[in-house]
Specification:
Elements lengths: L2 H9 L2 H7 L1 H7 L20 E6 L2 H4 L19 H10 L4 E5 L9 H9 L8 H4 L10 E5 L2 H12 L7 H26 L4 E5 L15 H19 L7 E3 L22 H15 L20
Parallel strand pairs: 1-2, 1-3, 3-4, 4-5
Helix pairs in contact: 3-9, 5-11, 6-8, 8-10, 9-10
Length: 300
């Protein structure tokens, strides 16, 4: 069956429920916050930085003019990871370990869903990246969730949600949040002195690539992305710092995207790197509870 027709049949009238009850769905995805450990401060201004990045293709700089192979320092890369390392290196010594794996998802549960529905993935952060965080890391960034949103969206196109769209997204968001808990605990157990920055999840429905999808699909992508982003935001309660890309209008600027409309270009990566550098250098950061980009796609 054609995917667009199947999407309409699978989501049908239940989509109206998710649109009307959007706020209720997002509230339900909130999981209890674990007891907060003592937050680790950013590295001192005169201290060397041992930087480790966990991520997917964005960590390798796909869409930029110089893409880095996985697990290579790649000093000249134009993705946000090597760009951040260069910015910080202007003030202090920086050692970089880039664990980013293209097409990886954060969540083991969503890796399973992706494979079941024919989406190619290369693993997940918990199993293939977190175990390799160096014990002496003093700065860790985690950027994940975009591939997870697309995987869940694909599964729903193929009817995985049945007639309970809101319930399915709620279940996947809770699983994503539980896996994020595991990931952060694992990173912290390996690198007890690391300052951890999490990039939450942008609204994929507001990205240029999503314009090729039917409106119903974009609304579903938006609902998944907002729910997953709020699970990422919840990690602030565990002593990490959250960089809010969901609510940053510049993230959605057409001038910040590569030709595929999904990955950032050099300018987009440079923007993210500057925001990360500001946090490392002492700026505060928190995620907004609501913002315009969360409802970029009209719900009615």
């Amino acid at each position: 069956m054609h995917k667009r027709r199947q999407l309409g049949n699978a989501l049908g009238l239940t989509l109206l429920g998710i649109v009307i009850a959007g706020c209720d769905l997002f509230d339900k995805t909130k999981s209890p916050t674990a007891p907060s450990p003592t937050p680790v401060a950013a590295p001192a201004a005169d201290a060397p930085i041992r930087y480790t990045a966990l991520g997917a293709s964005d960590a390798n700089g796909f869409g930029g003019s110089v893409v880095c192979p996985p697990f290579v320092t790649c000093e000249s890369g134009t993705g946000y990871v090597p760009t951040l390392a260069r910015q910080l290196r202007g003030l202090r010594e920086v050692t970089l370990t880039n664990l980013g794996i293209p097409a990886a998802v954060l969540s083991p549960a969503i890796e399973t869903i992706a494979r079941q529905h024919g989406r190619e993935v290369t693993g997940n952060f918990i199993d293939r990246e977190m175990p390799f965080v160096p014990n002496n890391a003093t700065l860790v960034t985690i950027s994940g969730g975009a591939n997870d949103v697309n995987a869940v969206g694909d599964a729903m196109v193929q009817g995985a949600a049945g007639t309970d769209v809101a319930g399915y997204i709620d279940t996947q968001a809770r699983a994503f949040g539980a896996d994020y808990d595991r990931l952060v605990r694992g990173v912290r157990s390996r690198a007890t002195g690391a300052f951890i920055i999490i990039l939450n999840v942008p609204n994929l429905a507001a990205m240029p690539y999503a314009s090729r999808y039917p409106l119903d699909h974009r609304r579903v992508l938006q609902s998944i992305a907002v729910a997953f982003s709020r699970e990422a935001n919840r990690q602030a309660g565990s002593g990490v710092v959250v960089l809010d890309v969901m609510c940053d209008p510049a993230v959605y600027s057409p001038a910040h995207f590569a030709a595929d409309g999904f990955h950032p270009n050099d300018a987009g990566y440079a923007h993210v790197a500057r925001r990360l550098a500001a946090i490392v250098n002492g700026d505060s950061s928190s995620a907004a509870a609501s913002c315009g980009p969360m409802t970029a796609v009209p719900v009615r």
